[in-house]
Amino acid sequence: TETKALEEGVSCQALCDKYHALHSEVYKWFDLSFNHFGRTSTPKQTEIVQDIFLKAHKNGFIIENEMTQLYCEQCERFLADRYVEGICPYCSYEDARGDQCDKCGKLINAVDLIEPRCKLDSNRPIVRDSKHLFLDLEKLQPQCDEFVRKSSEAGQWSQNGLTITNTWLREGLKPRCITRDLKWGVPVPLEGYDSKVFYVWFDACVGYPSITANYTDEWEKWWKNPENVKLYQFMGKDNVPFHTVVFPSSEIASGDNWTFLHHISTCEYLNYETGKFSKSRGVGVFGNNAQETGVPADVWRYFLLANRPETADTIFT
């Protein structure tokens, strides 16, 4: 969000307002309806994220550590993942981002990029240490293993979702950094961290309960009622670990009686021509482009369902 806001020369709030309205229009055109079409830039999101964090911290699942980060001397700032691009250390793709490679899909630490460059001014950043908070996934692994075993059997997860999750678990979970040196985001409610916010890995999935909370004050009837509520989720394979490992582990860490994931339906990639769709790079056909073609929404809906990449990547030409 910060990177895009800088590109467009607007505030982060103005950017979110613009795209929230744009997405809303696209969904209306596709004839999709919501009880409440929400967003994560709300006071409820801040309240619920901070509550989960403080409980996890109190329960001993948050650890503090120094993290080696890239620092741009020109911009005079630590560069959060999306502010950095470079060569992927795994597949040598030249435009990998500082958090994930668009080509091979692997998660990356920005400092591991080969020939990193600052996205704002293309200068080569230097390495500096900064203090951060980590969710102790290593300590949470036994409970996460048990959740995955039970939920994947009872909810009959789709095969690639289960394979991706089990790969993470087999390799052994490591503490994951959940804070960043950014201004836009949920503030960290801990002394000494006033200049940092929670990173998307920790707070994005909390959007599900917080958007429900913006719809109704009785949101806990859905989100803290595992005996009577089953949660079904649909997504592309690159988002699997955040929904099957990171978010459930955050729920476990809080100690509250959360509703956990029951069934996950995941697909492979729908690629664009010879590469991947990329919002950040503007590569592909997006909802507003589909609307501008004059082709009816139902034709698009049929095409996308017929070509849903359930067992292998498919290509949109």
Automatic annotation (TrEMBL):
Keywords: Ligase. The keyword Ligase applies. Its EC number is 6.1.1.10. This is Methionine--tRNA ligase mes1. It comes from Linderina macrospora.
